[in-house]
Design goal:
Blueprint lengths: L15 H5 L3 E5 L9 H13 L2 E5 L6 H7 L6 E13 L13 E11 L9 E8 L4 E10 L2 E6 L12 H14 L35
């Protein structure tokens, strides 16, 4: 089942029940990132940790959830003049690249340019070159807890990018790859009962100070 959630809905349409029933969440935002409630962001983050997939598109790089999962500002350079974007597949063995050609052109797009403030463990699948000369890491993945995130750059609202067949193929592949492998909360962290016997100690663990056995 596919459903939508928008900023204007109560809890932005992302109630706990909705998120619990979601395998993959697609996130697109533009100019109202600061209006997204922090409690909802925390809820989405927890669901990713528990196994839900998250696909962030285009200017979603400035969303709170993108920056939280990356641990960075998400900033980049940009220019909006409708220039050619050439998307190169730099990891053709990745499932998200299945059936995608070595490169494809998007005739008119907004430019995003490096440096792109993303996590150091990002796995890059696509790189873009723009008519004006800039390059950009336009498709990458992260593993966060049990869940996965995929960011894909194309998708400016002024151009028909989401009708481009190769863009649609990448998004479809991304959704399939993001489906949960494990979908459950992390188990209880406190484990008072050991797996094997522990020898008696001649000190008390919770005493203040340095332990000198």
């Amino acid at each position: 089942m596919i459903r939508t959630a928008t900023l204007d809905e109560p809890e932005h349409g992302l109630t706990q029940d909705v998120l619990d029933a979601t395998d993959v969440l697609l996130w697109w935002g533009h100019a109202a990132h600061d209006k997204v409630d922090d409690a909802v962001v925390a809820r989405v983050r927890q669901r990713v940790w528990d196994g839900m997939g998250l696909l962030v598109m285009h200017s979603g790089h400035m969303s709170k959830i993108f920056r939280e999962l990356n641990g960075t500002s998400g900033k980049l350079h940009w220019r909006e003049v409708g220039e050619l974007e050439r998307v190169w597949c730099v990891d053709p063995a990745h499932p998200i690249a299945a059936g995608v050609p070595e490169h494809f052109d998007i005739p008119y797009e907004e430019m995003y340019g490096e440096p792109f403030m993303i996590a150091g463990d990002a796995h890059v699948i696509f790189m873009s070159w723009f008519e004006g000369g800039e390059v950009f890491r336009s498709g990458f993945t992260l593993q966060r807890g049990f869940g996965r995130m995929f960011y894909f750059r194309p998708g400016h609202e002024a151009f028909p990018t989401f009708r481009h067949p190769e863009v649609l193929k990448v998004l479809a592949n991304g959704i399939r790859w993001l489906r949960p492998v494990i979908d459950m909360p992390f188990s209880k962290t406190h484990r008072p009962d050991p797996l094997s016997p522990i020898a008696p100690k001649d000190f008390k663990v919770h005493n203040v100070g340095i332990v000198n056995p």
